[in-house]
Amino acid sequence: MSEKSMAQQLKEKLFSKSKNGRLTASQETLSKAEEYCQGYKSFLDNAKTEREAVKAAIELAEKKGFVEFIIGNKYKSGDKVYINNRGKSVAFAVIGKEPVEKGINITAAHIDSPRLDLKPNPLYEELELALFKTHYYGGIKKYQWTAIPLSLHGVFALKDGSVKEVCIGENDDEPKFVINDLLPHLAQEQSKRTLNEGIKGEELNVLIGSHPFRDDKGSELVKLNILQLLNEKYSITESDFLSAELEMVPASKACDIGFDRTMIGAYGQDDRVCAYPALTAILDVENPEKTALAILADKEEVGSMGNTGLESDFLRYIVGDLAKMQNGDGTVALRNSKCLSADVNAATDPTFQEVMEKRNASFLNYGVVITKYTGSRGKAGTSDASAEYVAGIRNMLDNAGIIWQSGELGRVDLGGGGTVAQYIANLGVDVVDLGVPVLSMHAPFETTAKLDVYMCYRAMYEFMK
Ligand code: MN
Ligand code: MN
Prior knowledge:
- The chain is α/β, with parallel strands linked by helices and 465 residues long.
- It is built from 11 helices and 21 strands.
- The chain has 2 domains: 297 residues, 3-Layer(aba) Sandwich (Aminopeptidase); 136 residues, Aminopeptidase i, Domain 2, CATH 2.30.250.
- Strands 1-2-3-14-4-15-19-17-18 form a 9-stranded mixed beta sheet, sandwiched between helices.
- The radius of gyration is 24 Å and the shape is globular.
- The model has no long low-confidence stretch (mean pLDDT 96).
- One manganese (II) ion binds next to loops.
């Protein structure tokens, strides 16, 4: 055996080590990742919207003994509760042995994804075809949403207080919907538009029907026929669209990607790829020292606004309620708390490497990504985790043998983005972003690597256990 040179030995000691996790992980770990991702894929198919994600998450949690938190009730160490915020965001907590005031361990992911919302008055007929007008939600490349099968999810809330759930286009025998694009033969003018304008917002019109109501007189007979069908099924009339939340999402199912089946392709992985790990991790937490809290938030893709987004006081109230139950103070609890903001980062794409600075970019199969700061152009709009806090997280990951990497969101001055980290930091909580690298982020079909998804779960569990 040849001895290592001094330089070799020093390199091993001093250089940072980041390796492809599929080379370093044990066969057992790779198998566990594979198994874990089976559950993840079915969650993706059953939870394409924030409402469906809340429902699916609560269903899984109730099987593990979680009960709805009731203000005024006393819960003891080891008890498992959840707080459902309007069916669109939800928090799960396992009460710790230490008082809540001493601080809690929070993981926060979001369950809303870019999509096409129906407008308040969406239904119209043109050239004897019926269509829906949409207003896109979150940052999308509009051209990607044409000529692919879409499904419709959401609710009609009626004046009598009833709520009708809608989910059409997910089963093989159900109809789908589509936004049509111009044929290349006639797209000479369209092709001169910039990519951003290739399809314009007002061109995202969804085809939903073509059969006219059989009557010899009158106009808008296709629209009339559609309304009749909807009335039969949901007891709605046209004005009920105003009090509805209806979302067009890709009708595709989650699947394996690659001959070697190492990756997953699906809609809505930003941020279900972190929400599912945060959820499954808290479901596995038993009798933690500190209270563990996993929050699945809504509205991240539009700036965390509204009473189901994390810029609201939702999290503050939850921690306040938990502390008050023990006659403690919620503000003190928040100041002592720590958080992993579980959101995706952009994985480096071999085809578009120029947008990344490779020494600070994330890669598929290199594990869960620590993103110390997000923001754009001079770190604007980021909470930037403290060095001390990141040191603690590194230590935790290394001690647990979790494969991880660090990443920035692309080259300086090129673009950027944000997460919920800043809003949680505003509450006095120590927070850093930690999540899964994604290819084609915000596209109707996003790609992740199974090993990274599993490492995200392991990180979430290690943090809350
Ligand atoms: Mn996200
Ligand atoms: Mn996003």
